[in-house]
Amino acid sequence: MQVWKFGGTSVGKPERMHSIRQLITEDGKPKIVVLSALSGSTNSLLSISESLISKNITEAKEKANELRAHYDAFIQELYKTPSGLGKGQTIVEKEFAFIDQLITTVPYTLKEEKEMVALGELLSTQIFEAYLQEEGIDSLLLPALDFMVIDADNEPILSKIESNLATILAPHKGKQIFITQGFICRNPAGEVDNLKRGGSDYTASLIGGAIAAEEVQIWTDIDGMHNNDPRIVKNTFPIRELSFAEAAELAYFGAKILHPSTITPAKLKGVPVRLKNTLEPIAYGTLISEKSTDIEIKAIAAKDNITAIYIHSTRMLNAYGFLKRVFEVFEKYKTPVDMITTSEVSVSVTIDNTQNLDAIMSELREFADLEDPDMNQVIVCIVGNFYADKEGIAIKVLNAMKNIPIRMISYGASEHNISLLVDTKFKNDSLNALNEGLFF
Ligand code: ADP
Ligand code: ASP
Ligand code: MG
Fold this sequence. Notes:
Elements: E1 2-6, H1 8-11, H2 14-26, E2 31-35, H3 41-53, H4 57-78, H5 82-103, H6 110-134, E3 139-142, H7 158-169, E4 177-181, E5 184-186, E6 192-194, H8 200-210, E7 215-220, E8 241-243, H9 244-252, H10 263-269, E9 273-277, E10 286-289, E11 297-313, H11 319-332, E12 337-342, E13 346-351, H12 357-364, E14 368-370, E15 374-384, H13 393-400, E16 408-414, E17 417-423, H14 427-439
The structure holds adenosine-5'-diphosphate (ADP), aspartic acid and magnesium ion.
């Protein structure tokens, strides 16, 4: 069994759904197909939600009507028969009646917002499943809310997903195509929740891990993982092969093509992940697996919205107790630290979740001197094979960056990552300078 995931642009137009039908059926192999919402839908649903949070019901209704018109036109083009169209209309009718219900729910809380954003995937999958039925394809819709579960820390519970799926799939041996929703899940309270923006990739790899799939394929609008961010840098090119470790670093440090956690379950269960282009299916794409190639420098990514905190020891603590105290504070506030640099008396760290920044700063002040944190920083991450006995890599990186101020450097923590912290205003220059300096 394989798991194939199609992102927003891959399902965003009726003709794309037609090509996906072709793609998922032509090799005759059984698969679970994970779909995102139609491109733009999750943003529209969040925007309706924003209007509701600011108590602007009229605006929310207008936005919902606009979205409804989009779906009405979409299904007119998608289905070929009156009965197919009839099914599509029933689905759209039902889900938009639910949107109307959410619009009039008082108070409108985070729980309702999560139900609202889940509608994108609920709509796309039902509409697509009805289209497969119209085409006479033997498929089945598996509701993700029946098996995709997260714990109190919003972490997916892989063992539970595995047992849930085993039970759900057992009566359907021999079925060729299963369709399910990306992104959405249930939390421990049994409420509708989600895996954060871009989470459909994560759904696919969680399912891939849970069923020990032969392969997970992520179908998107580009021919694989590029060596740099193609939205910012002109001369980028696809990378044919990446190891799990390399791909995990790139996803975590901002390569938008993959949700940051996508690689974790695939790596854990040894399931290869292939990135493919829906618009150009014959392109090789990228294969992510256990194997690494010895290309030295593979790719660059950037993670936005980073805050740097500079902490100086007041020497009230033993030198060896200082770091422990510092990290206990971050642990207490469940705030992951991305980069660390140290000197004899100081340590600088970066975080991207600033929800508890004030509390963290005030606890750190109990035993350390702090400078004002630097907001608006970016981690630029260079990924490749940087084995300890290789020389000359750091100099290449620093040479490329010679005209750009660097706040922090992290080298040697992993054999696959060199990270630099720069101010956001230097992000584009850094990515372009590194592209020139490291690849051409
Ligand atoms: P989907 O809707 O299919 O999930 P996304 O928009 O989330 O697609 O991801 C694909 C996009 O990621 C590409 O169109 C590209 O602009 C962007 N991207 C950013 N960094 C990279 C990279 N290193 N390689 C490929 N694409 C990247
Ligand atoms: N639809 C969700 C989003 O836009 C999940 C996804 O597309 O992966 O974030
Ligand atoms: Mg995505």
